[in-house]
Amino acid sequence: MSVFLPLDPFSTEPIGPRVYRAIREAIVCLRLTPGQIISEAEVARQFGASRQPVHDAFVRLELSGLLHVLPQRGTRVARISPKDVRDAQVIRRAVEAATVRRAAERRQAESLAALDRNLARQEAVARDPQPHAFLKLDEEFHRLLAACAELEMAWAIIEDAKSHMDRVRFLSLPQTTPVEVLIRQHRAIVSGIAAGDAAAAEAALAEHFGELDKSLPALEAKFPELFDRDDAGVRSRLAAR
């Protein structure tokens, strides 16, 4: 059985981005486990694709810290880097704080309606024991915040930085962070934006990000095999090559 979600055979999108997202999703959701060796040829076979889009995806995933290419030995799924998680948190806090402040200044009705619809869907899946559906909606929620502020590039910056953070988020939902708490925090962010209260929206966002700060040490202790013990951070490792 493949660890990858099937590609949509009717999609008109080029296969490269779809292969990248499918591999990334399998890593984030830990169906490809930290330390596991994978090969371009086998992944290409599972997708029924040529080697080139898989190779391109591997290069991109190595740059984001999710894969390590081992010369003459293959490619290994990276263990979670606590340093990279914390670095990404710093970037994300700064960028999203500016995003919600600007969203509160603009208060665009159409964007707020999209956020409300997203929150309704979050509540509909809150009791699902599997976190996949909620994580997808959580990702969409934060992307919609950037759209609400007309700062789509801000989301692109965040998305590139948060690869290891996403795996911690996946682990935290069934382990340390109730989904209901996250939804309440999401609602507080939207309420602040809708009221034009940038300070309230930013305070709610800070509380929201604090959940990961609380869960990371507990997850490192509970799942030591998933975390990088020699943790210099991916950028330092790549720079040392």
List keywords for this structure.
241 residues; mainly alpha; Arc Repressor Mutant, subunit A; Four Helix Bundle (Hemerythrin (Met), subunit A); 2 domains; three-stranded antiparallel beta sheet; globular
Describe the structure.
With 241 residues, the chain is mostly helical. The chain folds into two domains: 15-77, Winged helix-like DNA-binding domain superfamily/Winged helix DNA-binding domain (Arc Repressor Mutant, subunit A); 82-226, Up-down Bundle (Four Helix Bundle (Hemerythrin (Met), subunit A)). Helix content is 68%, strand content 4%. The protein has eleven helices and three strands. The protein has helices at 15-28, 40-47, 51-63, 82-106, 109-125, 132-148, 152-161, 163-175, 179-194, 198-222, 234-239, and strands at residues 37-38, 67-70, 74-77. A three-stranded antiparallel sheet has the order 1-3-2. The model has no long low-confidence stretch (mean pLDDT 90).
**What is the topology, as strand order, of the major beta sheet?**
1-3-2
**Overall helicity:** 55-70%
Q: What is the CATH architecture assignment of the largest domain?
A: Up-down Bundle
- How many DSSP-defined strands? 3
Distance between the termini: 36 Å
Q: Beta-strand percentage? A: under 5%
Largest sheet: 3 strands, antiparallel
> What is the radius of gyration computed over CA atoms, rounded to a whole number of angstroms?
18 Å
Tally of helical runs: 11
Can you write the helix and strand succession as a string?
Answer: HEHHEEHHHHHHHH
Q: Which blocks of ≥5 consecutive residues have pLDDT under 50?
A: none
